[in-house]
Amino acid sequence: MNSLNIDPKNSIDRSPLQRSFLVGALALTWFTLLPTARAADGNVGDGTNTAEGAYALFSLTTGGYNTATGYASLYSLTASSRNTANGALALFTNSTGSNNVASG
Length: 104
Prior knowledge:
With about 100 residues, the protein is α/β, with parallel strands linked by helices.
C-alpha cells in the first residue's frame, strides 16, 4: 500500500469545522480564566466618590468626596475623604490621608 494514494476524505483527521470549534472553546476558556482588570467608571462606594480609569480608587472601603482619574490613581486609599488625584499612579500610596491633591 502506497501512502501517497490515501484519500483525504477517508482520513482520521478532524474536519476544519471540528478544529475551529475546539480552538474557539479553548480560547473562550482561556479568556474566562484571565484575571479581570477592575476599571472604575463613575460613582464608587457611597456615591460621593468618582473614579475614571483602571484600578482607580481600587482599595476604597469608606470615605467620601474623593476623585481619581487615571490608571491606579488613589489605588491604596482605604478610608479617607476629600482627595483629588489626576494622572496615572497619582497619590498611589496614600492610604488614609485626607484633603490631598496630586496631578501627574
